[in-house]
Amino acid sequence: MLPRDAVPAGPLVLRELTVADADAVTSGCSDPEIARFIPAVPSPYTLDDAHTFITKIAPDLWDRGGACFAISDSPAGAWLGTVSLKPPDVRGNGEVGYMVAPWARRRGVASAAARALAEWAFAQGVARVELVADVDNPASQRVAVAAGFRYEGVQRGASPLRDGGRGDVASFARLADDPGEPGPRYLPDFPGGSLSDGVVEISPLTLADADGYQEMMGEPEAMAYSVPPEPPDMEETLRRCRYTPLWWLTGERAEMGVRDALTGELAGHLQLMNVVPPLGQAMIGYNLARRFRGRGFMTRSVGLLTEWAFGHTALHRLVAGTAVGNTASQRVLERAGFTREALIRSLLPSPDGGWDDDVQWVLLRD
Ligand SMILES: CC(C)(COP(=O)(O)OP(=O)(O)OC[C@H]1O[C@@H](n2cnc3c(N)ncnc32)[C@H](O)[C@@H]1OP(=O)(O)O)[C@@H](O)C(=O)NCCC(=O)NCCS
Predict the structure, then answer these.
(1) Of 31, 106, 159, which is best to mutate to test ligand 1, by the most ligand atoms within 8 angstroms of its C-beta?
(2) Ligand 1 near 285 CB (within 6 A)
(3) How does pLDDT run across 16-47, given as a tens digit for each residue?
(4) What is the pTM of this model?
(5) Which residues in the chain are classed under CATH 3.40.630.30?
(6) How is domain 191-364 classified at the CATH fold level?
């Protein structure tokens, strides 16, 4: 069994739970976010549930070789949250889990606790500590990165949901000999969350964009130049919107909505994909809803994106591809400073079932 002594956690401390924590645990666990992302937590949550947790569930975890600490500001301080380590699985790996009371969030509590728990587990001989976060839970994914865990991929349908369904989870892990410090993010957040020139604004896609995206991508010209050239599938659109924070955080791709800066309306879609860090290269792609065309929206948006990419990432080559006949898209690239680089033959699937040639464009950092 693991030792139950208090563990320092930066400015915080991990200490044993006591019945004196019951009131705080009851208020904290009544939070809808906790109910949403930790389906094992009863909802609604009562004082009896808190007592059961403190006197039965947490001690049972310790007895089975796991750990369950209160997170606090000091050894006798108030409960701010809980951090736990599951008993080792069949391969001897541990898994960290956490929750933070709504009144203690956004000040590094979960990150400090997850980091301290992992390092404490390594000191107890655990070789690998895993961390899974719902794909819809960017806050928890950010905790993982901030606590030095490395992203390892998505496990589809791996997590039971409160409604009886199954959800995808993002998997992270820390090994005992990992450096434990988060490296610089290849795709940092936009400063302040969005980029704007006063006419257009670009910001990450959200679930609220799903209907507008779906409608826009169903327009005939959008479909003709999509890969594959078909109407989008709503499930795929929802997945794109839900995964955007995870893809951005892990440097896989950036999916953006182009918005009318005056009204906030979704006017288009812009993406940075095929990100290849060793080459410092990524590809941009875009589409503007028909009713916003002819106003320079996409040229402005591409300009905002390329300026950010060269100013805030290590990318030095931005590329784009257009069908040979797609004059409007080629004009956008020319006006945004791109030059023609190559003609790739029979690359793009065309609506008639054949293959179209692709004009490749490039914009270099210098
Ligand atoms: C997820 C949770 C534990 C985060 O706790 P926290 O103490 O606020 O987290 P931290 O202050 O350590 O923040 C860590 C990072 O997450 C970010 N973050 C925190 N809350 C966020 C939110 N609601 N949206 C987006 N980012 C958020 C912080 O800005 C920080 O990012 P940075 O390192 O890039 O600056 C807390 O929101 C919670 O208890 N949620 C409900 C239960 C839950 O989801 N548990 C995890 C299940 S896997």
Answers:
(1) 106
(2) no
(3) 999 999 999 999 999 999 999 999 999 999 99
(4) 0.95
(5) 7-175, 191-364
(6) Aminopeptidase (3.40.630)
